[in-house]
Each structure stands twice: as structure tokens, then as C-alpha cells.
Amino acid sequence: MSRGSEGSGDERAVGEPEPALRGGGLPLPGLKRWRLRRGLSRAELARRADLTHDYLFRVESGRRGCNPEAAHELAALLEVDLQELRTKRDDDEETQAASRPVRPRVAYRQVHQAYLRVLLLRAVGSAYAAMDERQIEKYCEKSPFEGVIEVVRARKREVGALGEVMQDEKVCADLPVEVRSFLEAVLESYPDLDIRLLAATRRREPSEEGREALTNAMRNLL
User: Fold this and answer.
1) Which residue in 38, 90, 131, 213 could disulfide with 135, CB within 3.0 to 4.6 Å?
2) Which pairs from 210-218 meet CB under 8 Å and 24+ separation?
3) Do residues 211 and 123 share a domain?
4) 3-state DSSP: the chain helix, strand, coil percent, rounded to 5?
5) Domain C-terminal end among 99, 126, 151
6) pTM exceeds cut of 0.90
7) Among the three residues 41, 75, 99, which one is the final residue of a domain in this structure?
């Protein structure tokens, strides 16, 4: 569906956040500007955000609204407030903004990860569950199969400890919605992420012993 047929924000004043479209999609007229300011290609940003290149192109060009969850992830990756991505700037304002030094914003997701890391290290002595999927994938790509199996075992302990925390009503009662959503997403990544890590390691493992050990580890997760 084209931007015009979805109810575009073209009539909004320059400098104001574009309103959400029907269906909840968010126009992101500032996405391209901030992507370029961060020195990222569209393909690289799409990869980091786990989006297709075509999807990101359509969002940047205003042909469609962005899924709110994906929009928050893009803002975190670009280290900018989501409101900036939703705001249209005219050429003069954009030129002036480009001449000013950019003050990076610490993404809320990074703060959540930092606290989760501290919690898990104190509870079980490891914190792989606090890593982004791409981070842990890269870590496992450089590790021998034994190391990947240990990562998966550690994540099982970590997810178990986090699950106990999330079942404690006294602890969860005062959690902000975004923190609760982040922690629930970590729990929901198990065991699908772990199976993918083991499967990817098995595909590049040359030894029969390693492939068998990885297969058994995957079976234990099913």
C-alpha cells in the first residue's frame, strides 16, 4: 500500500513527528538522514536490524509505514530518539543539523542489557542471554564446537534463573513495560536461538565427533 493511500503525514508541519498510519505503521521520514549521518549503507542497516533491504527501502522512501518494534530497533541501532526518525526536516534545517556535532544517545536496550548482564552474572556466573542475537552468533562463529555447546548450556541456566525472577510478582510488579517486554523477549528466544546456534556450528564442523555432539545437543533442546 502506498504512503498516500495509508494516510500520509505530508500535511504535518515540518519539525513535528509524523502520526502513525492506519494499522499502526510509523512513517520514518528521518530514517535516511540519520542512516547517512551514521555512515551506514541501507544494506548494512537492514542486516543489523534483521530486516530485508526492500522493506527498509520502502520505509525510507515513504512507501510504507514501519512496524513499531522494528522502528524502536532502528532507533537503537542509530543511537537516536525514535521521535527524530519520525520527524520531517526541511533542507535548511537538515543542513544546519548536519553541521552540528551529533551527541550519541545511549539506547534503552543497551541499558536493559547491561542490567541483565549484572543480574545473570551474580545469579549463575555467565550472561550470554544478555547479548544481541548477532553478537552471540559472531561469538559462536569463532568458537570450537565444544565452546558453542557450553554457551547453549549456560544459556539454559541463565534462562532458568531469569524465568524464576519473572515469576516473582513482587519483583515484576514495578517493572516498566519496556523492561518487562525486553526480558520476556529474552525468555522467548529460548530454545529457538540455541538450536540455530548449534545447527550453524554443525554445518561448518569438519569432524564427525563434533557433528554428533552438536546433534545430540540439539535433540536435548527439543
Assistant:
1) 131
2) 210/144, 210/145, 210/146, 213/145, 213/146, 213/149, 214/145, 214/148, 214/149, 217/149, 217/152
3) yes
4) 65, 0, 35
5) 99
6) no
7) 99
